[in-house]
Amino acid sequence: MADTTGTEFDIVVLGGGSGGYATALRAAQLGLTVAIVESGKLGGTCLHNGCIPTKALLHAAELADNAREGEKLGVHTELKGIDMSGVNAYKDGVISRLYKGLQGLVKSRQITFVEGHGRLVGTDTIEVGGQRLKGKNIVLATGSYARSLPGLEIGGRVLTSDQALTLDFVPKSVVVLGGGVIGVEFASVWKSFGADVTIVEGLPHLVPAEDEALSKALERTFRKRGIGFTLGDRFSGVSQDDNGVHVTLESGKTFDAELLLVAVGRGPRTADLGYEEQGITLDRGFVIVDEKLHTGVGNIYAAGDIVPGLQLAHRGFAQGIFVAEQIAGLNPAPIIESGIPRVTYSHPEVASVGLTEAKAKEIHGEDAVETLEYNLGGNGKSQILATQGFIKLVRQKDGPVIGVHMIGDRVGELIGEGQLIVNWEAYPEDVAALVHAHPTQNEALGEAHLALAGKPLHAHN
């Protein structure tokens, strides 16, 4: 561990995940001295047991589906099986390369990395492994953990995404508790790998934070894929034995499976870190901040999953950059939460940015909102990829587009343009005037805006 006795840093960051390392890299770029304190590995949840490993599994799952369905395209492929040790070696290789790159980046910027469990012991001091690091500014970025429900013990055949990512076999059957992003992605992977999957979601829809049209479309596709789900029925209890798990719902329904995956969201990692003792306001474990991500105590800021809102790596990353620029006196513009894109990388993918139809009507009024759905059935590239889905646009009447919502394979790659449209407050006519390459799925965005501008070239809906 680096000896930092007597050194005062411009910034000491507690947590080396997306929010923490982005703060450090941007601050170092701006000429500030920085230390990062991290108890695990640099890169945090996203790199080691979140976004990156799950997307690697989803890519392997896509290849499995392609092999299974090659005959439909006249290609003689067959799926001989899934070798989880091979899948895990591929996944771990991806993580390892990104991890080495990140470590090199932090080193090259002269950022002091201190490994160990840090704790806030003063408004300008983090204590780690018996030494004290002083910072003119402190940034709290301690991230999140896979939550469970009260009384639901994790262990044995009951796992969270952390354990699910290291499984060395494909389960025969799984009950997934939670139909949000994480639950839906794992359900999609396991189904592609050949497991029997049932999702249990207490709310009325899968991916309940998305526009209802996307939720219903995902449910239809999952039904076709043979992924079972039960909605609007809450979990009551689980028992496990040598044969598997026995899950009971409040309605009395029961499910038997080999494993239960608990995917009920992520909680903020803020317990026993000295936050409250230093006067920081917590609400259900989340750190309360102002629009400049300042905690209201000394020069202490917070970024990432511990700040209430979307728990997304790219949000944490953006907040880290924001905090570094704020400390450096650049006075950056506050981040608009609704302008952050959201992607669920299941098969099919779900991607959105801006307001859902329901939220837009709540904010602007029932009659002040217009929507349009453009079916991917009219899009050449989507036909080639044999994917179905649609793009739904939400706009203010006679005003800009305020929501872009999509479902279909690979739509996560289209959300970049959707994000520009919403954040730059484009009118349908503005986008309709842009020439989109043919044949691409991207072209469907152009066509949807042509239709919304009143000049549809192909029939929609």
From TrEMBL:
Gene3D superfamilies per UniProt: 3.30.390.30, FAD/NAD(P)-binding domain (3.50.50.60)
Catalytic activity: N(6)-[(R)-dihydrolipoyl]-L-lysyl-[protein] + NAD(+) = N(6)-[(R)-lipoyl]-L-lysyl-[protein] + NADH + H(+)
Cofactor(s) listed: FAD
EC number: 1.8.1.4
Binding sites annotated in the UniProt record for NAD(+): 178-185, 201, 265, 305
Compartments it resides in: Cytoplasm
Cofactor details (free text): Binds 1 FAD per subunit.
FAD/NAD(P)-binding domain residues: 9-320
One GO term (biological process): 2-oxoglutarate metabolic process
GO CC, any one term: cytoplasm
GO terms, molecular function: dihydrolipoyl dehydrogenase (NADH) activity; flavin adenine dinucleotide binding
Disulfide bridge map: 46-51
Domain Pyridine nucleotide-disulphide oxidoreductase dimerisation: 340-448
SUPFAM superfamilies reported for this sequence: FAD/NAD(P)-binding domain, FAD/NAD-linked reductases, dimerisation (C-terminal) domain
Keywords of this entry: Cytoplasm, Disulfide bond, FAD, Flavoprotein, NAD, Nucleotide-binding, Oxidoreductase, Redox-active center
Protein family: Belongs to the class-I pyridine nucleotide-disulfide oxidoreductase family.
Other facts: The active site is a redox-active disulfide bond.
Classification via PANTHER family: DIHYDROLIPOYL DEHYDROGENASE, DISULFIDE OXIDOREDUCTASE
NCBIfam families: lipoamide_DH
Protein name in UniProt: Dihydrolipoyl dehydrogenase
Species of provenance: Flavimobilis marinus
